[in-house]
Amino acid sequence: MDNKIPTTIFQTQQFKVVFPKHLNSNGTFFGGEAMQWLDEVAFITATRYTRQRMITVKIGNIHFLKPILPNTILEIIGKVVKTGNVKLFIKVEVFSEDMFSTSREKMMEADFVFASCNDELSPVPLKK
Predict the structure, then answer these.
(1) How many structural domains is the chain composed of?
(2) pTM higher than 0.85, yes or no?
(3) Range of the structural domain that residue 60 is part of
């Protein structure tokens, strides 16, 4: 039996619950908290894929498609979509599941760019 992590990991997923402490003054999921969760999943995806030190260099195309309500389970999925010499491009999507039904829909998406770096945080090529 091979206990090694696959070298072809292109996706990471994480589940979180939206509790009252995560809400803004409108009673919906706070956007800043959402961005933190998405960046965390993107970082994990980049690090698992490269096994190198990675830093976020850009977040773009952020779309809040629908308000996220409390008492929902969020599935946050990060996928590697492109690699460059130093940069890694990741798409993160958020799906919401109602806790008390089988309802599920896409709520958010964003694009992340990470760069590989050395211990001094200077850019280095991605390992092939």
Answers:
(1) 1
(2) yes
(3) 13-19+29-116
For residue 106, being part of any structural domain is answered with yes
Nearest to 44 by CA among 2, 21, 16, 3: 16
**What's 14-64 look like in SS3?**
EEEECCHHHECCCCCECHHHHHHHHHHHHHHHHHHHHCCCEEEEEEEEEEE
pLDDT per position as a tens digit, 3-58: 665 555 689 999 999 999 999 999 999 999 999 999 999 999 999 999 999 999 99
- Kindly state whether residue 50 falls inside one of the protein's structural domains: yes
Give pLDDT, residue 3.
61
Contacts 24+ apart (CB under 8 A), 100-104: 100/71
